[in-house]
Amino acid sequence: MRTTITALLLLPATALAASSFDGTWKLRPDSLKVTGKPDVFVITDGMYTCSSCVPQIKVKADGTDQKVTGHPYYDMVNVKILSPTSIERTDTKAGKPAISITYTVSADGKTLSGKFIDNTGAKTATGSFTETRVAAGPAGGHAMSGSWLATGLADGNDAALTYHYAMTPDAFSMKWNGQHYDAKFDGGQYPVAGDPGHTKVMLKKVDDNTVDETDYRMGKVTDEIHLAAAKDGKSVEVTDKDVQHGQTTSFTLDRQQ
Hints:
Layout: E1 23-27, E2 33-36, E3 39-44, E4 47-50, E5 57-60, E6 65-67, E7 76-83, E8 86-93, E9 96-105, E10 111-118, E11 125-136, E12 146-156, H1 158-161, E13 162-168, E14 171-176, E15 179-184, E16 190-191, E17 200-207, E18 210-217, E19 220-229, E20 235-242, E21 247-255
Antiparallel strand pairs: 1-13, 1-21, 2-21, 3-4, 3-12, 4-5, 6-7, 7-8, 8-9, 9-10, 10-11, 11-12, 13-14, 14-15, 16-17, 17-18, 18-19, 19-20, 20-21
């Protein structure tokens, strides 16, 4: 699960005209909603398949590192079956840990709970989430097999949930956990510094309270993100359309300062 990571950079004092975006924000976990195509996993005959991953992943579920290609944040996937209802997937890139998720299926088979450890930022981000089953997996497969749609973010630490924004008449700055960009509203693509996936962003100012962001990775559009700041300055509504995976994630950020 990937959402927008944005932030406040130091700007000259003359450029810091007050904007409804300026400040520190924290994601409200119970506000997160996901619609669109489900996550699809199958674990059978000792193999793990993620057909909703782009590109698809099919590796041995034997607890060893398996090479994959075409993924910006990892080049190895390790899937370990912990029990008939639980697995652990660990992704690494260039030998360094990226993201690890432990999945557990409820006793009735209807809910998938996940706990994640994200090392793609400056600090380790952690949290948990839930997904609801929307289709069964093949007969004889691991309990996790099937189609799932995320239903919420249960919690997260400050590294996972805290964002910073700033906007001037001609630029927008954003930062999350050591990753940041400072992009002008000129139609150009600007790199996200510190991002191991090498994301580039293009920004459009709709009005003083609304910004549209387009993300690019590996030369392709990956996300279309709509940021709408409340006029009272207390919240920002974020809608992230994941073009590659066919999912749309929305959530609310609450002002911290």
